[in-house]
Each structure stands twice: as structure tokens, then as C-alpha cells.
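Question: I have long wanted to understand how a fold can be written as C-alpha cells. Here is the record:
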Amino acid sequence: MAALALPPLGRIAVSASTLAAAVLFSRYLGNLSEGGRDLMLSALFGLVFGIFLQRSRFCFYCVSRDFLERRDARGLLGILAALAVGIAGYTLVFGAFLAVPSSGRLPPQAHIGPVSWVLAAGAFAFGIGMALSGSCISAHLYRLGEGAVVSLFALLGALFGFALGFASWNRLYLSAVQEAPVIWLPHHLGYAGSLALQLALLALAATGLWLRHEARSPDAAPEKTGAGPWERRWPAYAGGLLIGFLGVLSYFRLGPLGVTAELGSIARTAADTTGWLPQRLEGLDSFAGCATTIKQTLWSNNGVFIIALIAGSLSAAVSSGDYRLKLPRLPEIGRSLFGGMLMGWGAMVALGCTVGTLLSGIMAGAASGWIFALVLFGGLWLGWKIRRKLQW
């Protein structure tokens, strides 16, 4: 492991240069003739999202591990805070787009997917994969900005996992997904009933977590000696509240938050080029959310979002002194590749990951989001037990 040894002024200079480059990149995108404004906003949202993720350590596996190992519930409570803000905000936005949630109509672009055993299988595989690799896909992206080289191998594994998902999609779609119900809670409960039910479930979960909370240490390991306010990690609830608000703003202006559409599109394009892809992917392009396509242009909204996310994390990590260039050992590389493949396959067949299907899905009132979350944590627990058993 090697640390980036820069004095405070040097850290500020690197961080400011990264932010300036990201802003200039977004301005360049904004000047493009086709979709430039949306690309610029995607880059700015990604930049902010990367900062929020890095400063609040918003990693689904890390905060779950904190609870499993130390009964530290604060990270999971931060996720619940993000969901609470997002559910309330999405409900307000939906009321403007679709005043009456009548059956047969869904709000535009919302991450509301079919409910079947395929969704559960994808969530379970994703949970195991993120435990084995050490992070979910969004956390691997922000950890790249912190200098975690091993995250590159997890993301490479995810690309192969997506390709495997495309290869298995038609059989899964025809056997289960095609006839699976798409359950949007406001269809059955109205906006008020859906909002009340989901907030009640979050309150129940928060109460259970808090009653078992036993941690006496800070969110992210020991405090830095003499660290100022910026160098200290943000409280988990602060990151959750900010990410929840960003999720609502992103949906209102562009679409739901997600980090797998570009990865899936790269894998789909590569698989199509090499002849791995079936001639027809049944029904896949009819779903909203983290949709994948054959890439026709260099830039996409999700692609620039991911690039800016890494830049935002890098800027925040360098300026706060969190940047550490971490070179992985061979066993770590193998675990990350395999865990990434499980995440990629799971995200493909479940039509999203912890940010798309879970966060954006639950915020949208989708039953698929809740089911994904429940099964995901079952897979995460199993993966965590495997790591402990093998002493990884």
C-alpha cells in the first residue's frame, strides 16, 4: 500500500484541479448539439454523487458488515434515511407526472420491474458477489477515486457477468419474466397509502436496527488525529439525506439514479461484436430503469455520470487525505473478479443493482425494489459468512 504524500496545499491543488477538469468536461458536453444539456447535467449529478458517496462511506456491503460484525447500525440507518427522503420526494414528483395512479399506467422512466424468481436469483447472486468482492458496484466506482486498484478487477468481472446475463436472458425471460407481474404500490394503495406503508416499514426497520445498535466507534474507523471538519467522514444520516434528495432531483430532471446502464451497454456491445449475444434479447428493451443498449455514440448520460462520479470521489478523497493507492494481491484479484461476475450477472437479470433496483426502485414504490433488498441481504450474509469461514 502506498499513500499519496502531499502537503495540505498540494491536496487542495489536486482536488481543485480535478473539480475544475470535471466542470470543464461538463461544459464541453453541454455544447454538444445532440442531448448536450442532459449530458452536462448527468456529469454534474455524477460529480456530486461521487462526493456524497466518498465522504459518507455510502457502501451497502461496508455498512452491512459494520452491523454484522460490530452491531454498528449507523450506516444502515443512513441508507434508510436516503430511502425515506426519496420515497417522499418521488411521491410528490409522481403527483405532477401522473395525478391519478390508475392501473395500467406507470410513471415515466421509473425503476419499476417485474417480480419473479429471476429477480430474487439476481439479487441473491449480487449480494454474494458484493460480499466476496468487498463492495457493491457503486462503491467500487467511488473506491477507484480513493485509489483502490482492486476495484478495477471487480468492475471487469462485472462486465463478464453482464455478458453471461445476456446469454441466459432469453431462457429466463420466456420461463418467468415474461408473465411476471409488475407491482407498483400506488396502483393498489394510492399515493397516500403507498407513502404511509413504505415509511412505516422504514420506521420499523430503523427501530429494530437501533435497538440492536451497540457500536461505540465512529462510522469509518478511527478518527484522524487533528482532523478538521472536512477530513472527518460525514455522519451516515447526512450522506443518506443528501443522496435521497439527489435521487429525487435526478429523477425529476433526467431519470432515476443508477450505475449499471453504461457497464451493461459496454458488455452488450462487446458481446454483440464477438457474436456472444443472441440475435434477439426478448423483451429486454421494454423495461425502464438501468436499460442497456448497443452503443452507437461515445457519450451517454449514464457513462458521463460514472466518469464524473469517479472524479468527484477522487477530489473528495485527495482533499480529505483519504486517498491511498492500494495495490491488490493475487487472491484479492481472484475474489474481486469472481465477485464482480456474480454482481454483473445479478444486476443484468434483476435489471439493476443496489442504486438502480434497490434505491431508485424503493423510492418509486416498486415491489421489485423491496424484494431485491430483502433477498440481497440474504446473499450478502452468506457471502460474509464465506469470507469469515475462509478468513478472507
Q: What stands out?
A: The mean pLDDT is 88. The chain has one domain: 2-214+233-389.
